[in-house]
Write a structure and sequence with these properties.
By secondary structure, the protein is mainly β. The protein has one domain (2-186): Periplasmic metal-binding protein Tp34-type (Immunoglobulin-like). Helix content is 10%, strand content 46%. The chain contains one helix and twelve strands, in the order αββββββββββββ. It is globular, with a radius of gyration of 18 Å. It starts with a helix and ends in a 16-residue tail after the last strand.
Length: 202
Amino acid sequence: MKNLLLATTLIATCAFGTLVQGAEPRVQVLPAPEDATKKSVLVGRNLADNMIVTFEMEAAKDMWLHIGNPPKLRQRPVRKGEIYHLDVKPLDPKSNAVISYEHVTYRLLNRTTGRKMSGVLHPMWDNGGLHYAANSPLAGDGAYELTVSVGVPSFGRAAEYKELWLKPIATKFHFKIVDGKIMEVSEPMVEARKHGESRATP
């Protein structure tokens, strides 16, 4: 009986983990439209496999990246048509620190028009600390689905962390843009604590 109960609990836990990773985000309509080119907008905060992933949008900005072979720090200016800076923070819920040494990518689908975009989110540092980012033109107005994929971090771990982040994760966010302004976002799964995340779970 004890083994049966343990097996049932394990199956339920695994099913919940799969549900969280693959679940469609719940939509939150903003009280007023927000312009991400004027100020940073929190689009979502998801919990996925012992990791909190936040996604914010703000105005596109120049970035200094290690480019070339051998890599050298070079300016990557805002390119023609780029409007937004996509900002992703994978957080450790225990320490609330941004997890480093990861490969982070994104896939965007404009569900209204069917247009798709994808790319790598580069590790960046600014006055908000470490995050993963890319500039993007997006694909016009419409309802968007953004999938953020976070790879396995390459650092060593203390004993209490040895079972964490051993598999890549993917988590989805929703946002809707009308006349260049964000009207809907994902309802946050967890409350904000740091890193400028202002919208708490209702």
